[in-house]
Write a structure and sequence with these properties.
Blueprint (H helix, E strand, L loop, with lengths): L9 E5 L8 E5 L2 E7 L5 E5 L13 E3 L2 E3 L6 E2 L5 E3 L17 E2 L1 E4 L2 E4 L24 E9 L3 H7 L6 H4 L17 E4 L2 E8 L8 H4 L7 E8 L3 E7 L6 E10 L5 E9 L8 H19 L21 H16 L1
Antiparallel strand pairs: 1-11, 2-3, 3-4, 4-9, 5-6, 6-7, 7-8, 10-11, 12-18, 13-14, 14-15, 15-16, 16-17, 17-18
Length: 329
């Protein structure tokens, strides 16, 4: 795993998933523990007690401190051990009895950690998700696992030409798959483009909310470095949109865990959530079938055998920027 990849923020868990019990997460070949301190703020450390190397997965939080399930050592939000139950009163606690803490932030519906140099952990680099929690938007969420390198997963969300071939229920006419010219917008933390396509078939609840055929639908595809996708689908009907925001977490070189949130500004009733989740999961399963057949290496590495075309220019922009960011890290 490229060590320079550690100098980025990673959304590793949904905010709602971290309550009173510590949560274990895997990232870049390491295992971390998340918990909330006495003020409710998220904290993160390597999941390894300095005493005997036990995991905190079965531990607990007591008076805002993390307790080890093996011998009950207690650690404050700075990672300092403040109690060793086996020691007699007055015995000094060793200075090395502390956790390796990481910067942790709660934002955009996720818990973010920075596994690299803390001096580079600027929270302003975390991408925003303004629609989440805003009036008129209904959210659903989930997760799924890929046997694939995370860069390949990100690129599946930046791909402008695969839909008629991979997502068959919605795109039935494979002979009408030409991609209209588009421009790539590059910012310091992202690449994006607006793509207009033939509208998908009106299946499921779409049959009831979109009342007529349209000339096109559009999608704003965004890749935030290194591993976040945002796909904003505009149905070109009464302003209805569905926005998919996903963190593709690199567990290791060959496995990726995606934590996602989707918001819609139509059918805000809870009974419609199942349809949104089903459409998102069905899309994942269709993408998974092809993405997991690709090489497990990082897509931007030299020597790749991929042959990119004009319709792949957003993917090319992502690869070039990632290679440059890692080289300068």
């Amino acid at each position: 795993m490229n060590e320079a990849l550690r100098n980025f923020w990673y959304a590793v868990e949904h905010s709602a998933a971290l309550a009173t019990t510590p949560r274990q997460v895997a990232l870049l070949g390491d295992t971390y523990i998340l918990y909330r301190d006495g003020s409710g703020a998220p904290q993160a450390s390597l999941d390894r007690c300095p005493h005997r190397g036990a995991s905190f997965k079965m531990g607990w939080v007591e008076s805002g401190c993390l307790r080890c399930p093996y011998h009950g050592w207690s650690f404050d939000s700075q990672g300092r051990c403040i109690r060793i139950p086996a020691d007699q009163p007055g015995v000094p606690i060793p200075a090395r009895a502390r956790l390796h803490m990481l910067p942790a932030v709660e934002s955009s519906g996720f818990l973010w950690i920075f596994p690299g140099d803390p001096a580079k952990a600027d929270p302003s680099l975390i991408p925003s998700f303004p629609e989440l929690g805003s009036p008129g938007w209904r959210a659903v969420s989930g997760e799924y696992l890929w046997q694939a390198n995370f860069s390949r997963v990100v690129e599946s969300g930046l791909d402008t030409s695969h839909a008629p071939f991979v997502h068959k229920p919605f795109f039935v006419n494979r002979d009408d798959a030409a991609v209209l010219p588009y421009e790539v917008a590059e910012e310091s933390g992202s690449v994006s483009c607006l793509v207009k396509t033939k509208p998908p078939q009106r299946l499921g609840l779409l049959k009831y909310i979109v009342k007529r055929d349209r000339d096109y639908s559009s999608s704003r595809l965004t890749g935030y470095f290194p591993n976040v996708n945002r796909i904003a689908i505009d149905f070109n009907w009464k302003g209805y949109q569905y926005i998919y925001f996903a963190s593709n977490i690199p567990i290791n070189d060959r496995q990726t865990l995606t934590k996602w949130i989707g918001v819609r500004n139509f059918l805000p009733q809870p009974w419609a959530d199942g349809n949104s989740i089903k459409n998102t999961v069905d899309t994942y399963l269709e993408d998974q079938a092809v993405v997991e057949t690709q090489e497990k290496s990082f897509s931007w590495e030299r020597g790749q055998r991929d042959m990119l075309l004009s319709s792949d220019q957003l993917i090319l922009a992502y690869r070039k920027r990632m290679a440059a960011l890692l080289a300068s890290a």
